[in-house]
Q: What sequence folds into this?
């Protein structure tokens, strides 16, 4: 082994141990962020329904937009948030994300994560991820994706840890996965959290 390789390895090992310990300590203290208490989805698209079903398994209440995201935010979802608090995850069209972003802002919430999922290319799905530590968790989940990309995203959003916060991405992550079935257009996944 070369001296240079040994020194590199010796420098990385303490950092990896520290991240692991910080992550366990943060999780024990509940530092993974506000609980996701609700999921908003566009029931017209199978990928959105898969996402919502997976979020429900993580304890979120589901709210189908039924063609009008504003009505959901000003009605049942707002009432749910006033009683239960937490964050709101979603998988919708881009226009419904815009409505959700503004309605969330009105009640003191902000976008913490946003993913664009472009399925307009034959057989491919291009993901562009932006946001806080949860974008790192989603990126990792999509790299392991076995076809159920919407479920992978739903599983990653509630599980972002301190280790995900520490791992910084140099640029906005983009990756391409196979498009198995579902909507052949453009969907967004997102997380709106208390500011």
A:
């Amino acid at each position: 082994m070369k001296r240079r390789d040994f020194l590199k390895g010796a420098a990385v090992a303490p950092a990896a141990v520290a991240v692991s310990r910080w992550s366990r300590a943060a999780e024990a203290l509940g530092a993974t962020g506000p609980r996701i208490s609700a999921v908003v989805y566009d029931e017209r698209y199978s990928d959105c329904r898969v996402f919502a079903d997976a979020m429900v398994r993580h304890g979120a209440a589901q709210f189908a937009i039924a063609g009008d995201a504003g009505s959901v935010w000003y009605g049942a979802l707002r009432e749910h948030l006033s009683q239960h608090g937490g964050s709101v995850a979603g998988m919708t069209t881009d226009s419904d994300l815009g409505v959700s972003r503004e309605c969330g802002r009105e009640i003191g919430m902000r976008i913490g994560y946003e993913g664009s999922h472009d399925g307009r290319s034959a057989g491919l799905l291009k993901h562009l991820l932006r946001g806080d530590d949860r974008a790192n968790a989603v990126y990792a989940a999509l790299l392991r994706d076995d076809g159920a990309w919407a479920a992978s995203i739903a599983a990653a959003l509630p599980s972002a840890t301190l280790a995900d916060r520490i791992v910084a991405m140099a640029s906005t992550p983009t990756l391409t996965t196979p498009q198995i079935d579902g909507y052949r257009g453009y969907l967004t996944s997102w997380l709106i959290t208390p500011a």
User: Anything to note?
Assistant: The CA atoms of residues 119 and 170 lie 25 Å apart. Strands lie at 36-41, 61-64, 87-92, 109-118, 124-131, 174-178, 186-194.
